[in-house]
Design goal:
This protein is mainly alpha-helical. It has one helix and no strands.
């Protein structure tokens, strides 16, 4: 077995990890946005099914 040809410095590793953290935060934000949209759609569908949505004047 041989040692890796290139080893990163601590500063380089921190830079890589900070970029990874930023990417994961973006993914969490995207997932939250999707979840919010799905909840809003579900709430609207539930309200419509219960008869709370008044569509008077919306039909062409």
């Amino acid at each position: 077995m041989s040692a890796p040809a290139v080893t990163r410095t601590v500063a380089e590793e921190i830079t890589v990890l900070r970029a990874r953290v930023a990417e994961l935060r973006r993914q969490v934000s995207d997932a939250r946005e999707i979840n919010h949209g799905l909840k809003a759609a579900r709430n609207f569908a539930d309200s419509e099914a219960a008869g709370y949505v008044d569509r008077t004047g919306l039909e062409a």
